[in-house]
């Protein structure tokens, strides 16, 4: 499994130079990242780990963020192919995060996930996320095949 909590990921070339392969800087090490780069955003560390393991088993490289603030910061430092975003988080919730990611990086595909909480029902939250820019939605809990189906649907989405 490749799951990175990183300081920075780069794939920007100086003007007039060919774009390099995306890479991650871990200290002084430069690690190439050629599979699709996915940001998994969830305030529950165990959920992030499980989602990253499922995606890594399918060949994706995952980055992790514990909330929307961290996700937005990381998205500014990387060129993400996809973000899988939980909707109920502290600091900056998933709906705000999806709107912000969509605005900052329209080419990034987005999967919203939620199990709901108390009065906030998952179907309503996921419908709102879809209306505000999510390419696919996922009800928690889910199986690996359901995650991969949502990820592939999002990657195939045309905006």
Short description:
Helix content is 36%, strand content 24%. The chain is α/β, with parallel strands linked by helices and 159 residues long.
Describe the structure.
By secondary structure, the chain is an alpha/beta fold. The protein has a single domain (36-156), classed as 3-Layer(aba) Sandwich (Rossmann fold). 36% of the residues lie in helices and 24% in strands. The chain contains 5 helices and 9 strands, in the order E-E-E-E-E-H-E-H-E-H-E-H-E-H. Strand 5, helix 1 (45-57) and strand 6 form a beta-alpha-beta unit. Helix 2 packs parallel to helix 3 (94-104). The termini are far apart.
Descriptive keywords:
36% helix, 159 residues, 3-stranded antiparallel β-sheet, alpha/beta, 6-stranded parallel β-sheet, Rossmann fold, disordered N terminus, 5 helices, 9 strands
